[in-house]
Design brief:
The chain has 116 residues and is an all-alpha fold. Helices cover 68% and strands 0% of the residues. The two termini are 14 Å apart. The relative contact order is 0.17. Bound molecules: 1-(1~{H}-indol-3-yl)ethanone. Residues 28-29, 33, 37-38, 80, 83-84, 90 line the site of 1-(1~{H}-indol-3-yl)ethanone (5RN).
Length: 116
């Protein structure tokens, strides 16, 4: 049935997410930015995103395409570059994660064409 067909796609998304999270050496993109850490964060970032939210969305079959998965990854990067100044460690880590992450996602999209 469609449900069993979805498993390879879900597995591919989980594997891809694990590869992306490995590139976040400092684990700064794993969990939501807390009010304690950044009281003004919610005033500036209207659509927060992080790897733990992405993982929940994968597990609940919210991503129908790899493009939708990619859009949330790009949102993580965009939010970080909007909130943090260019001369910060967080901003620089976001740029590095984007470089490495887009390569990982490019490969995942090729595989998705096969299992999809
Ligand atoms: C990813 C990101 O922007 C952050 C990750 N941890 C933070 C703590 C304070 C302010 C921002 C952040």
């Amino acid at each position: 049935s469609m449900e069993y067909k979805l498993q390879p796609f879900i597995m591919l998304q989980r594997h891809t997410l694990n590869l992306l999270q490995e590139k976040d050496a400092e684990d700064i993109f794993v969990n939501p930015v807390s009010d304690e850490e950044a009281p003004d964060y919610k005033d500036i970032i209207k659509h927060p995103m992080c790897f733990s939210v992405m993982r929940n969305k994968v597990d609940t079959h919210r991503y129908k395409t790899m493009e939708a998965f990619e859009a949330d990854f790009k949102l993580i990067i965009h939010n970080c570059c909007m909130y943090n100044a260019k001369d910060t460690v967080f901003y620089r880590e976001a740029l590095l994660l984007k470089e490495e992450g887009m390569e990982i996602i490019k490969d995942a999209k090729l595989i998705a064409e096969k299992v999809g």
